[in-house]
Amino acid sequence: MKIVILAGGKGTRTWPRSNDELPKQFLPFLSKQTLIQETVNRFRDFVPPSRLFIALPRHYLPLLKEQLPDFPSNQLIVEPQQKDTAACIALTVFRFLQTKDDEPVAFVPSDQFIADKDAFLAAVSAAADVALLPDAIVTLGVRPDRAETGFGYLLTAPDSAAGKASSVSGIRRVDRFLEKPDEEQARLFMKEPDIFWNSGILICRPENMARCIQSFEPAIWNLLSQNPSNPDAAYAGMPRLSIDYAVMEKAKTIYCLPVNCGWDDIGSWGSLLRHLSSDPCGNVIHGEVDLMDASGNLVFMDNKKAVIIGVSGLIVASTSNGLLICPKHEESRLKKWLSAGKEVDDCPTQDDQPGIF
After folding, report:
1. pLDDT digits (tens, 9 = 90+) for 100-125
2. Could you tell me the pTM of the whole model?
3. At CB < 8 A and 24+ separation, what contacts does 80-83 make?
């Protein structure tokens, strides 16, 4: 099998540390290594070197070459633009099929945390066996251990026939992809044994994925077929779609392999609270920070000293890119603000209030 590490995200939810020029996969969050270095190292002994690939937009190439200087250039899937995961995966399978290579491929995001590497790799290996079934696309599912509103969910059912045909136990059929829930729904999902987090990790044969893209999003495949050696031309008209929306929610033969490996998505400031050590009052601190009567805060200071007094449950992050201050439970609004350019509300801005400062 092959591993393709998806490294094209913008990392908007960890602004101001992460931005378009330096997204979170190229930053260290949990160790001295960057997230993409950790992900590459996770697979170095799992597959032969020639079967490890990285897919990323062209403008991230300098960052990759700086952090992984020995990674072979012929094992890079280079996108002309950022067009989300449907275009990226389509380009990847198109490239493999050009050389008549149809062995199973695992598409793995570059910004995830895995506590139990051995259990994770065993699940990926088993999923590759399931991917050999007719029309199969496999995703790894994770049992919820908290009421998480930031993840998508999978509604599944046992599939003994798939398990027997693949000799892999525990295989489930995905009946439906569930949108990110509110907190009340997330608490209900936790109690349902057939509902799993969608890890965003999928395993398939290129031919199966190509057939699905041709069926559900023919414009994507037609652009690649019409420009087989010119991805710039293909991407010029490529729609911006996630692979879940383009294929996974529409395909009929999606399997879920549950995995218990301490998986987490390092997609936000709040996710770091689950993996970084805290002081006795529950504060997670980076940089020069003094606290007084403060608890449960995450404070990241990259360039200045901070004094935090009498507050709880805040995220405070300051870098040369800007300053973020928000309650932890409001963190989801950060991505909305960045995508819209500003947050619209009914409160007047400082400029509308003469006399303030």
Report:
1. 999 999 999 999 999 999 999 999 99
2. 0.92
3. 80/231, 80/232, 80/235, 81/57, 81/235, 81/238, 82/8, 82/10, 82/57, 83/235, 83/238, 83/239, 83/240, 83/241
